[in-house]
Amino acid sequence: MKISDFIGEATEYDKKEKLEERRPKSWLKSVSAFANGAGGLLIFGVNDKGELLGLEDSKNVSEKISEIIKTKMDPIPQVIMEINKEEGKEFLILRVPSGIETPYYYIGDGNRTAYIRVGNQSIPAGNIDLKQLVLRGSDKTYDSLTSQFKYKDFAFTKLRSVYKKRAGKDLEESDFLSFGLTDAYGMLSNAGALLADDSPIRHSRLFCTRWHGLDKASGVLEAIDDKEFSGSLVTLLQSGEEFVKNNSKKRWKKTANGRLEMPEYPERAVLECIVNALIHRDYLDMGSEVHIDMYDDRLEIYSPGGMYDGSIVQNLDTDRVPSRRRNPIIADIFNRINYMERRGSGFKKIKSDYRKEVNYKENLEPKFYSDSTSFWVTLFNLNYDVPIDNDKEVAIDSKKVAIDDGKVAIDSKKVAIDEIYTKCTNAGLSNIMIDRITAFYEFVGDDLIFGRKDIAEYFKFSYSNAGKVIVSMKKAHIISTVVGKGKGKYRFNM
Question: For the whole model, what pTM was predicted?
Answer without folding.
Answer: 0.70
